[in-house]
Write a structure and sequence with these properties.
Two copies of one chain form a homodimer. Chain A is α/β, with parallel strands linked by helices and 448 residues long. Chain A is 36% helix and 15% strand. A seven-stranded mixed β-sheet of chain A has the order 4-10-9-8-7-5-6, with helices on both faces. Chain A has a four-stranded mixed β-sheet with strand order 1-2-3-13. Chains A and B meet through helix 2, strand 1, helix 3, helix 4 and strand 4 of A and helix 2, strand 1, helix 3, helix 4 and strand 4 of B.
Chain lengths: 448, 448
């Protein structure tokens, strides 16, 4: 199995690919390498030069149309006119910070809190999911007095020093926080959960083991930081209710649950507006980011007042751009659009249709090990053997490259880099399914 | 002298002020308290409810016009039409991340790097100054192999766990990083620098003392993180060249210089496009934020390729919203506008005019201890005695409240909270000086 850091860059462009590029693309990649440096990685052996987006699609510089099955940031669709109009109007009027009174941030806060359980009664705004998770860990530590955070084994929670140290997906070059511990995700396909009766109970038992191990090492438990669709671990949406036992374990051990909703939030799973809500649980802190402003940099952290105060009354916190009227206008337009266009219900229906369309392929292709998902988030696992379930890593890469050549943009996840992460914009419709499934089957047939 | 945490909230609204508010304002403040929680602080005993901005001015909900002498974020002026047009057009076209090719981010990177010394040849984009400084500290540590960062004693560098632990201005509730050390700023007004011949040499000597002390504690020196106008310390713009000796000390001790340009960057000081450039020094890392996108959340970190690679080749870093086409469109429009409107030259001229207009007041008011600055960044220090230089803390607060009542928005800085921080948008013109100086003098006369 490849090392973690390989997986993070699984489908990256590399210098060795440059020879096969056309001249314009080669020049652009060379310029990037010179100006932006080594951290910047492009997707694909033949990078895509995007210039325009609309709804579920993007177009490249040559006018070629692509179906976007990767980007959850332009959540209600690329260049959604409602978001464009809201941002343009507010920018022309005022953009300032939250140390002056402004009505829009309060109206949005009230609206957003109405989508969350009553227990989560306060919200703060930042600019990125990393900032939200960085703050959430600090808040959890301040409230519990503990330090130790438990994470799933391939989790990614952000790019700051603190969140990177809580992101095992970044690989062995990045240190893990000394007080953090890892737990395997509730992988119903691979985990040996039969003895426990359900993967949810199995996961809760593994979690308790890590809490116990942490305590034996003299680290006080602060909480569980979790993405309820386990996006980076390999997309384990699971049955509704799956996380209930784990949340009980956290609370019985006096920890807090931080639900990182950067991936599942804002209607994506179809079953609920928030990923955790699919499981009927109530976290103590909820962080949100990517899809919140359709590309406008805005993020948020909701919490119980009591949990938040332990931090807020001790340490000053101010985020200059956080909650500014323009970001809020974008976020409000996203929330309004999700409702007006029924995007949660569409996610539920279209996601199920997609998985129903993919299911018959498993009869024809032995390499399809599992198809799973919730709403507009589907994981499709390719294995070299259905018995050993060994990840078909190289094949998976070839498939996403082949899909890119067929105009469908997607990527892979999981420690084996063999789980296709089908995560379109919420603008993705039933009528887009044929293109996606056709491109997948053609690419797979070609790659086999 | 008040504690640090008091200073951070010096001119905050407090619940005790609520009785004197009109009904609408009282309702909004109560709603904020309920929804947003304790970290959110409003400016002023009578908070300003802003609804519109244009050029150097904002308007409140009652239609009252204010002169904005506080906000450096709307750097080229509130709701600048060039920025609004650029963002609106790009949003309607495409907003996505840097893992696809896009020409605008490269054109902007090239343009921005052309304003920096040749040694700084690579740039990365984030969303906030906090993210830029968080990354810069990590890069400095990776490159030097050291841990210890030296900061000025009232510095503020961000709100993440790492940058908060490098922000002594946050006060005693926030821990300082165990490897960090503080140095007094080059305060020509108060420091006892005569023996060293210049405050710059005095500052360099104090810096060497801290590096030595750090080493004695077994901490390897990583670098100096510094705002070259010492905004949070009390606005010590100093004579050009002031920082040369300090930068030499850092390099002789094998550390890196991180110039935090969130405050002085983007033409504000008038003398140069970057604050460090006023002093003829070349930092190893430059971070930038607030004014970069005129309110659009964008930040950046420029560095020497060699310095950056130590980090980039080891640890994956990706910033979802960083360098997206919309943020870049805003940043490019800001850079273009600074040039097209000659805002650097205007900052130089108008800033000097403002200080010339304030100077005669020092003859009439014994409490004016010092007036200093560069370009559109002026510090005006109020003291209870010119001999003891004791900070006139309460008076300063009354003055900024009095100025607010006269429609001029500003704030205070420094450990004594007695330094008026006059930091208008770059749209501030000569014709605005009378309003500002008149409001200050009236407020001062009233408060005395």
């Amino acid at each position: 199995m490849p090392t973690r850091s390989t997986i993070m860059d699984a489908n990256s462009f590399r210098a060795a690919h440059a020879d096969s590029l056309d001249e314009v693309t080669r020049e652009l990649t060379a310029k990037r390498e010179a100006l932006l440096g080594a951290s910047y990685r492009l997707f694909y052996r033949n990078p895509v030069h995007v210039v325009r987006g609309e709804s579920a699609y993007v177009w490249d510089a040559d006018g070629r149309k692509y179906l976007d099955v990767y980007n959850n940031v332009p959540s209600v669709g690329h260049a959604h006119p409602a978001v464009v109009a809201a941002v343009s109007a507010q920018m022309a009027r005022l953009n300032t910070h939250t140390r002056y009174l402004h009505g829009a941030v309060l109206a949005y806060a009230e609206d957003l809190l109405s989508t969350l359980p009553d227990e989560l009664d306060q919200i703060m705004f930042m600019c990125t999911g990393s900032e939200a998770n960085d703050l959430a860990i600090r808040v959890a530590r301040a409230y519990t007095g503990g330090q130790g955070i438990i994470l799933t084994s391939e989790a990614y929670h952000g790019n700051t020093e603190l969140t990177s140290a809580h992101s095992p997906a970044l690989g062995s070059g990045q240190h893990l926080d000394a007080s953090a511990r890892l737990v395997a995700p509730p992988d119903a396909y691979r985990a040996d959960w039969a003895a426990e009766g359900s993967v949810g109970v199995w996961f809760a038992a593994r979690l308790q083991e890590q809490i116990d191990a942490m305590r034996e090492d003299g680290i006080a438990f602060a909480g569980l930081l979790i993405d309820s669709v386990f996006s980076s671990d390999g997309v384990f949406t699971g049955e509704p209710g799956l996380l209930a036992a784990a949340v009980d374990v956290v609370h019985r051990n006096s920890g807090v649950v931080i639900a990182d909703e950067v991936q599942p939030g804002f209607a994506r799973t179809g079953d609920a507006f928030w990923g955790f809500a699919r499981h009927g649980v109530v976290p103590d802190i909820v962080t949100m980011g990517k899809p919140m402003g359709n590309g406008m940099p805005i993020s948020g952290m909701a919490a119980r007042r009591e949990v938040l105060e332990a931090f807020s009354l001790t340490i000053p916190y101010f985020n200059t751009f956080g909650g500014n009227p323009v970001s809020i206008a974008a976020a409000q337009a996203v929330l309004d659009t999700i409702r007006a266009e029924g995007l949660q219900e569409r996610a539920r229906v279209v996601g199920a249709e997609l998985r129903a369309a993919l299911a018959p392929l498993a009869d024809r292709y032995e390499v399809i090990g599992d198809v799973r998902g919730a709403g507009q988030f589907t994981g499709l696992e390719l294995v070299s053997s259905r018995v050993t379930k060994a990840p078909a890593t190289a094949l998976s890469l070839d498939v996403i490259e082949g899909m890119r050549e067929r105009g469908v943009l997607t990527s892979v996840a999981g420690p084996g880099g063999n789980i296709l992460k089908l995560r379109p914009t919420l603008a993705f419709r039933s009528s887009d399914i044929d293109w996606l499934v056709g491109a997948f089957e053609d690419a797979l047939a070609e790659a086999l």
